[in-house]
Amino acid sequence: MKRLTFIIATLILLVAGACRKDEPSVPTEKDGEQVWHNKFTTNGLNNQVELVSFKKTNGQLEGDHYILYFEAQERYLTDSLKPKGTVATVKAAYEFQKTENGWLGPDNKVYEPTK
Predict the structure, then answer these.
(1) What is the pTM of this model?
(2) How many CA atoms lie within 13 A of 38 on its CB side?
């Protein structure tokens, strides 16, 4: 009887495990923040704008594309873009494309999937 109970319990666990659907790994808030830094550095603005905060607000997975929606607070360090000291809230999105090695960001860097 104990053996039958063990076999039934094992079968239930195997079936439950097989039915479990794993969510695909997608770009994280940390990935989005890194894209922000990379884009500002590439555009030569890293000495003019400082990131105060970065928050992922939503995300949408559609096939091999993922859109990471975010809200960032940026402080302007010079008067060339906005008055010095201005803190602006920006709402925007970054699109990532799935590749064999991870997610290709809008900064042309690949971000490895994390679980």
Answers:
(1) 0.77
(2) 14
